[in-house]
C-alpha cells in the first residue's frame, strides 16, 4: 500500500509540474503573440506609404476648373456630375488657390502642387464639388476676411444650387486656423484641420461646433501638445473629434516621378541618388532634416542639366521632401481617411 501510495503521489506531483510548465508556456506564447500584434499595429499606424500616383485617376477624373476673380481674390472650383457634397479647401501661408489645380486652358496660371492636386482629384472622384479661394495676404486673417469668405462660399453654393448638399472644409496650417474660426460662422457638417491646432483658445466654442478631425505630424511636439489640449476641450463640449498622425517615410527612387506630373523616372532616380551622395538622406532613405533646412537646391547646381529646363518643379520637389520628413506640410496621403470622416458625419 505504501509503494502504491508513493507511486500515486509521484504521479500527481509529476502531473502538477507538467501543468505548471504547460501554463507557463501558454502565458509566454500569449505575451509574445500580443507583443508581435501590437508591434504590427504600431507599424501600420505610423508608416505612411505614398501609393497614390499623380495620374492614378485618369481618365475617369480630369481637371476642368472654373476661375473667377471675386471680391478681390481668386476663386477656383469644379463641380462633378451629380455631386454628393461640397468641400472648401483653405491653403497655408504662401499658398494660393492655383496650387490645387493643374495648369490647363481654363486655368493657365494654375500650378498643381503634388499634394494639393491629389486631394482635389480624390475629392472629385468621390463626387465632392470642390471650392478653393486665395487668402488676401500671405496668410489668412480672422477679421473681415472671414466675412468675405463666408459670403463667397454662400454666393457660390446658391449660384450652383448646392444648398441641399453637406458642406465640409479642410484647412492646412494657416488655412486650418482659418477654418477653425470660420466654423463658428458657417454650418459645416464636419471639418478637418491639417497641421494646425486651431484657434480654440481665442474663441467660445459653441455646442453646435462641427465634428473636427486633426491631421498632424507628431514630430512637431509643440503643436501635438496643443492639439491634444484642444481635442480635450472639444470633447468636454460634447463635440466629436478624432486625429490622424502622419509619420515620416523614406524617399524611393521613383517617389518624385510618381507624385509630380511630367517629371520622369530618370530625373527622379538621379535626384534621389544626388540626395544620398550629399548625405541629405540616410542609408534607409529617410530625410535627415526638413526639406526647408536641406541645401538640396545648392547641390542641384552641380548637376546643371538635371532640371535646367524645368525650374517650375522646384516647389513640387520641395513639397515632397518636406512631406517625407513629416514635420509641417500639406499631405494627400490620408485623403481617403479624411473623406471617410466627412462622409460619416453627413
From TrEMBL:
InterPro entries: AB_hydrolase_fold (IPR029058). The keyword Cell division does not apply. The chain crosses the membrane at residues 20-38. The keyword Transcription does not apply. SUPFAM superfamilies: alpha/beta-Hydrolases. Keywords: Membrane, Transmembrane, Transmembrane helix. This is Peptidase S9 prolyl oligopeptidase catalytic domain-containing protein. It comes from Aquilegia coerulea (Rocky mountain columbine).
Amino acid at each position: 500500500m505504501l509503494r502504491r501510495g508513493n507511486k500515486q503521489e509521484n504521479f500527481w506531483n509529476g502531473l502538477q509540474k507538467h501543468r505548471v510548465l504547460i501554463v507557463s508556456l501558454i502565458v509566454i506564447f500569449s505575451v509574445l503573440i500580443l507583443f508581435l500584434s501590437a508591434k504590427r499595429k504600431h507599424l501600420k499606424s505610423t508608416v505612411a506609404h505614398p501609393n497614390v500616383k499623380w495620374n492614378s485617376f485618369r481618365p475617369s477624373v480630369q481637371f476642368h476648373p472654373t476661375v473667377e476673380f471675386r471680391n478681390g481674390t481668386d476663386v477656383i472650383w469644379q463641380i462633378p456630375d451629380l455631386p454628393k457634397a461640397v468641400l472648401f479647401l483653405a491653403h497655408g501661408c504662401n499658398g494660393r488657390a492655383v496650387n490645387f489645380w493643374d495648369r490647363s486652358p481654363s486655368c493657365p496660371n494654375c500650378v498643381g502642387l503634388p499634394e494639393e492636386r491629389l486631394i482635389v482629384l480624390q475629392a472629385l472622384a468621390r463626387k465632392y464639388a470642390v471650392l478653393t479661394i486665395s487668402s488676401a495676404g500671405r496668410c489668412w486673417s480672422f477679421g473681415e476676411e472671414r466675412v468675405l469668405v463666408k459670403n463667397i462660399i454662400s454666393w457660390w453654393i446658391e449660384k450652383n444650387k448646392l444648398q441641399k448638399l453637406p458642406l465640409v472644409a479642410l484647412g492646412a496650417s494657416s488655412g486650418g486656423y482659418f477654418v477653425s474660426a470660420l466654423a463658428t460662422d458657417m454650418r459645416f457638417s464636419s471639418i478637418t484641420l491639417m497641421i494646425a491646432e486651431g484657434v480654440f483658445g481665442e474663441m467660445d466654442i459653441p455646442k453646435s461646433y462641427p465634428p473636427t478631425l486633426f491631421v498632424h505630424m507628431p514630430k512637431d511636439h509643440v503643436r501635438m501638445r496643443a492639439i491634444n489640449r484642444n481635442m480635450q476641450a472639444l470633447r468636454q463640449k460634447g463635440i466629436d473629434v478624432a486625429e490622424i498622425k502622419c509619420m515620416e517615410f523614406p524617399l524611393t527612387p521613383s517617389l518624385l516621378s510618381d507624385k509630380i506630373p511630367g517629371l520622369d523616372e530618370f530625373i527622379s532616380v538621379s535626384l534621389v541618388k544626388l540626395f544620398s551622395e550629399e548625405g541629405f538622406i540616410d542609408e534607409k532613405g529617410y530625410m535627415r532634416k526638413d526639406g526647408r533646412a536641406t541645401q538640396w537646391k545648392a547641390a542641384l547646381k552641380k548637376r546643371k542639366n538635371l532640371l535646367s529646363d524645368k525650374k517650375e518643379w522646384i516647389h513640387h520637389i520641395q513639397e515632397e521632401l518636406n512631406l517625407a520628413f513629416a514635420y509641417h506640410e500639406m499631405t494627400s496621403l490620408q485623403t481617403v481617411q479624411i473623406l471617410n470622416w466627412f462622409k460619416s458625419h453627413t
